[in-house]
Amino acid sequence: MERISEDEESSGAFLWNEQVASYRPPDALYCRECKVLIEDYDHLCPWTGTGIGKKNMCAFKAFVVL
Q1: Is the pLDDT of residue 58 over 80?
Q2: What is the number of other CB atoms lying within 10 angstroms of the CB of residue 37?
Q3: Cα separation of 61 and 50, whole Å?
Q4: CB atoms within 10 A of CB 51
């Protein structure tokens, strides 16, 4: 797993991510199960099998309620 310094993390710049061979936004994390970068990662949903983050949180909440 790639380690970054606190200075790099707090800079707010996009950092190179080796797992996906792409730059990642400062608030994104790599999900090992989904093999993708997820912005504002929350958790891996066992029912849908997807990582829950910024772009699918509303859909996840609707899924849970309904």
Answers
A1: yes
A2: 19
A3: 13
A4: 21
